Automatic annotation (TrEMBL):
The keyword Hydrolase applies. Belongs to the glycosyl hydrolase 28 family. GO terms for molecular function: polygalacturonase activity. SUPFAM superfamilies: Pectin lyase-like (SSF51126). It comes from the Eukaryota. GO terms for biological process: carbohydrate metabolic process; cell wall organization. It comes from Turnera subulata. Keywords: Cell wall, Cell wall biogenesis/degradation, Glycosidase, Hydrolase, Secreted, Signal. Residues 1-35 form the signal peptide. The lineage of its organism: Eukaryota, Viridiplantae, Streptophyta, Embryophyta, Tracheophyta. Residues 92-139 form the Rhamnogalacturonase A/B/Epimerase-like pectate lyase domain. This is Rhamnogalacturonase A/B/Epimerase-like pectate lyase domain-containing protein.
Length: 466
């Protein structure tokens, strides 16, 4: 398998490509891991490696040392249990290992050398400075996450992170395996039987902070294509504060009962295109959070999982803004919900201009859902303010459900407005259940199955804060 990475494009300020080699943590314990977990080990003889094509262009000013060190500080804060206590993690600059970065020389050997050196040290990272063009790869291997609680220390928010990049592509057929079962199963509810069963493999409890497998932050023009991310401890692929994101031919694979393992998580990101992807996970296949707009999702298979969701928005009285999201030509199998918008009571802001079209469902709990009383199990207070929902369109939602075909539970003080339904054909796998509407205003444009006569009329738009 190979994982190719390349970056390109134009950037205004100096760029720093940081490959957070927390992923290297595992290889610092190479022998131990191999001895103990041989059955999971798919490492080639060439040693721990990922195949990478790293190419950077148009940066100027080279390495921004100040920002680098700040970033490193950010990343490693609060990890008192680090092998190198309170020290910065060791970093390995590819230039120090002979990389030329001239855009012509094959820098594979240098990257390999940096990788190998980094892998001898716990909590290390590899630096790829800006202002150069590197050609690297291919190497063989699957990237495996460490499964030892000692290596993870007090936990990380993300395992592999790319930050503040402009024009960056990860492509290839590689697999990033988070080996999350040690995290998912590390729950008190499994009791002593479970612990004794796996106790030998683990150094102890995993940290309570579960990492996202791959995260992009503050980047422009990011493409992820071809790769598979499986068994993440938490979210598989996350984009936060990114503009111009493209994800295609992407696969996530983790069990339906793995907790909080969103497939793709979007936050504060605009101009996002996700297509031709297969997402199986234990939480939302795609989760769209506040600050997202101009999101287009098509030709995605989802299941197992919780469906494609906007929200939960407005938690802890926050303001949330999501607009212009289109989800079309998707199929869902055995998911908890299909297309869903969920908001907490007490929030503000709005969700507007949302279209769900040509969604094929089979054995989906509730295919169409708006829940403005979302509460994740902890006690939630009633509150009159709410994130306003305006212009939510459903066209061609067809297939079978297991719980309820349609569930519109809108806020008492901020009813949903402009909900439209056309060509809905939802049949029960087992028992029929009627659609539910609460404070939902809108129109039914065609006959629907089951008939929906609970939408109210008379309210149209009201001003929203976004
Ligand atoms: C909505 O988003 C799409 C991309 O999905 C974009 O092409 C379109 O211009 C956006 N519309 C508006 C009004 O911004
Ligand atoms: C919240 O409101 C619902 C319905 O309006 C009511 O049934 C419930 O008891 C209320 N909960 C609290 C904590 O006030």
């Amino acid at each position: 398998m190979s994982l190719d990475m390349k970056t390109g494009g134009f950037n205004k300020k100096s760029l720093t490509l940081m490959i957070l080699i927390a992923l290297c943590l595992w290889c610092s314990r190479f022998e131990t891991c191999q001895a103990r977990e041989g059955k999971y080990w798919t490492q080639s003889e060439a040693g721990p490696a990922t195949s990478a094509l790293v190419k950077k262009e148009n940066g100027y000013g080279g390495n921004d040392g100040r920002r680098l060190s700040k970033f490193m500080g950010d990343m490693w804060n609060g990890e008192a249990q680090a092998t190198q206590q309170y020290g910065k993690p060791s970093s390995f600059n590819v230039l120090d290992y002979g990389a030329k970065g001239d855009g012509h020389t094959d820098d594979t050997k240098a990257f390999e050398a940096a990788w190998t050196a980094a892998c001898k040290v716990a909590r290390s990272k590899i630096l790829v400075p800006a202002g150069s063009v590197f050609f690297v790869g291919p190497l063989d291997g699957t990237i495996l996450a460490p499964v030892s609680s000692k290596i993870w220390g007090s936990g990380l928010l993300q395992w592999i992170e790319f930050k503040e990049l402009n024009g960056f592509t990860i492509q290839g057929k590689g697999t990033i395996d988070g080996r999350g079962s040690v995290w998912w199963n590390d729950l008190p509810s499994y009791g002593s039987e479970w612990e004794s069963e796996v106790g030998n493999q683990l150094d102890g409890k995993m940290p309570s902070t579960k990492p996202t497998a791959l995260r992009f932050y503050g980047s422009t023009g990011v493409t992820v294509t071809g790769i598979t991310i499986q068994n993440s401890p938490q979210t598989h692929l996350k984009f936060d504060s990114c503009t111009g994101v493209q994800v295609s031919d992407f696969t996530t694979s983790s069990p339906g009962n793995s907790p909080n393992t969103d497939g793709i998580h979007l936050q504060n990101s605009q101009n996002v295109l996700i297509y031709s992807s297969d997402l199986a996970c234990g939480d939302d296949c795609i989760s769209i959070q506040t600050g997202c707009s101009n999101v287009f999702i098509h030709n995605v298979n989802c299941g197992p999982g919780h469906g494609i969701s906007i929200g939960g928005l407005g938690k802890d009285n926050t303001k949330a803004c999501v607009s212009n999201v289109t989800v079309r030509d998707v199929s869902m199998h055995n998911t908890l919900t299909g297309v869903r918008i969920k908001t907490w009571q007490g929030g503000s802001g709005s969700v507007q201009g949302i279209t769900f079209s040509n969604v094929q469902v089979s054995g989906v709990g509730t295919p169409i859902m708006i829940d403005q009383f979302y509460c994740d199990g902890s006690k939630c207070k009633n509150d009159s303010s709410a994130v306003a929902l305006t212009g939510i369109n459903y066209l061609g939602i067809k297939g079978t459900y297991t719980e309820k075909p349609i569930h519109f539970a809108c806020s008492d003080s901020m009813p949903c407005v402009g909900v439209s339904l056309s060509t809905i054909e939802l049949t029960a796998s087992e028992e029929d259940s009627p659609p539910l509407c609460w404070n939902a205003y809108g129109t039914v444009k065609t006959t629907t199955l089951p008939p929906v006569d609970c939408l109210r009329t008379g309210k149209s738009r009201y001003p929203t804060e976004c």
